[in-house]
Write a structure and sequence with these properties.
- With about 450 residues, the protein is α/β, with parallel strands linked by helices.
- Helices cover about 50% and strands about 10% of the residues.
- It contains 16 helices and 10 strands.
- The strands form 2 sheets. A 5-stranded mixed sheet has the order 1-10-9-7-8, with helices on both faces. A 5-stranded parallel sheet has the order 3-2-4-5-6, with helices on both faces.
- Helix 4 runs antiparallel to helix 11, helix 9 packs parallel to helix 14 and helix 11 packs parallel to helix 14.
Length: about 450
């Protein structure tokens, strides 16, 4: 089971904090469990691993099986929480090189997460000569990036299969009852899955939002949910026996002690998009009212040769949270070289896992001695069950952390500012006055 460990933390926080912070954590815990805190209407994820819709879950599995049988590619269209979690899990369970591998399952391409014509055209080219399906993910159906991308891929589907043929290849994950995408899906007869009303995008990876793309790869989503339920039960404890309590508590105390930046690190390249999901989860949940840790990420050991210098010797405003994923499935051992020109025969016969573990330990010692506190999140491995535990752990810790900061962990009011400006500058009806004002500012 996942665990949280602290390394030499007394040198950074000499005063005990657990007892003093416990009442506040208890209140935060009760707000999550009872949906009684600010934003409580968006805490449906708290008991989701136990209470999820089994009928829809079965439809997700059936749809994934159909896509595997009739498509060589699935294009997942969504932005932010509508794609980051799914991509992170697929990379971890299947490989960052999943689309390049020989396999019996479809490639999975992610579109609608930006506004690059080159990136969009590239995916259109990749699916042009193969059978493909589309999963459009949007609560409203009007978010600019995915809505624009969907126009292109819907057109491509209808050109390839005709209007009627395209219908069976479009899967819409959207609001249960309302919104532009829901209305369009019902009118066209596309199969739909639900973005729950009580679960925000960044907490939605364990809903149809993430489960359908993940299931298309053949990953075991039943085990993913079982792992999340394991952690859910542990988090119901309401004490420091819960790893989410320990993580939320120590990061809050480090923040209060003058360390406003958290670096999430892992020694596996497959974890890269899990860190991207984590950054959205914590950035959108905590960053408001002038508060919140700044979530950043590094990929070790690669970034030890780039960011390592700053981490070791730069301004002491950060701490590290290091995810240790356990042993690899592949046990590669270093071959011997008779000439030993590189001087590495002392590693001959040793496994890559062993070398990586020693690198982790050496880095841990160097960084803590250099003044960077380290939190270690230990995970048994990289299975679907392990990933389910980790996802729920980070979500629950995030809810606790938001309430410790006295902010709403489930809204994102600041996200709307850029959208209003973008709509005005693009000439959206109703924004005419704002457009003139903005154009004047840009031309000063």
């Amino acid at each position: 089971m996942l665990d949280v460990k602290l390394f030499q933390m007394k040198s950074f926080l000499p005063m005990p904090y657990e007892d003093a912070l416990s009442p506040r954590l208890k209140r935060a815990h009760e707000k999550l469990q009872n949906a009684s805190g600010v934003g409580g209407e968006f805490t449906g994820w708290v008991h989701l691993p136990r209470d999820y819709d089994r009928e829809e879950f079965a439809r997700i599995q059936a749809a994934a099986a159909k896509i595997r049988s009739d498509s060589k590619a699935l294009v997942v269209i969504g932005i932010g929480g509508s794609y980051l979690g799914a991509r992170g899990v697929i990379d971890c369970l299947c490989s960052p090189n999943y689309n390049l591998k020989k396999k019996d399952t479809p490639n999975v391409y992610f579109a609608g997460n930006g506004l690059s014509a080159d990136a969009l055209q590239e995916i259109l080219d990749l699916v042009e000569d193969v059978d493909f399906s589309v999963n459009i993910i949007s609560k409203s159906g009007t978010t600019t990036e995915p809505a624009v991308a969907f126009r292109f891929f819907r057109e491509a589907l209808e050109k390839k299969y005709g209007h009627e043929g395209a219908k069976s290849r479009i899967y819409a994950t959207t609001d249960k009852a309302r919104g532009a995408l829901k209305s369009l899906a019902d009118a066209e007869g596309w199969e739909t899955f639900v973005v729950p009303d009580d679960i925000g995008g960044r907490y939605s990876v364990l809903t149809a939002v993430g489960l359908l793309p993940i299931a298309v790869t053949g990953a075991d989503i039943t085990e993913l949910m079982a792992g999340a339920e394991d952690m859910m039960k542990l988090c119901e404890d309401g004490s420091y026996n819960c790893p989410a309590w320990r993580y939320a508590a120590i990061r809050y105390e480090l923040y209060r002690s003058g360390r406003p930046i958290e670096l999430l690190a892992c020694y596996d390249p497959a974890f890269r998009f899990m860190t991207e999901w984590w950054k959205q989860l914590y950035g959108e949940s905590e960053g408001k009212d002038g508060k919140g840790l700044f979530p950043a990420s590094v990929e070790f050991t690669a970034d030890l040769h780039s960011m390592g210098q700053y981490i070791q010797d730069g301004k002491r405003i950060m701490f590290e949270t290091v995810v240790r994923l356990g042993d690899s499935d592949r046990q590669l051992c270093v071959p011997a070289d008779e000439a030993n020109g590189d001087g590495l025969n002392f590693l001959a016969g040793k496994s890559m896992d062993y070398i990586r573990s020693r690198a982790m330990d050496g880095t841990l010692l160097a960084h803590t001695e250099g003044g960077v506190p380290n939190i270690i999140v230990e995970v048994d491995g990289k299975t679907a069950r392990n990933l389910g535990q980790l996802i729920y752990f980070f979500e629950y810790s995030c809810g606790l952390s938001g309430y410790l900061l006295d902010v709403n962990p489930f809204d994102q009011p600041g996200v709307e500012a850029y959208k209003k400006n973008m709509f005005a500058l693009l000439g959206k009806p109703g924004y005419e006055d704002r457009k003139a004002e903005l154009e004047l500012k840009l031309n000063k």
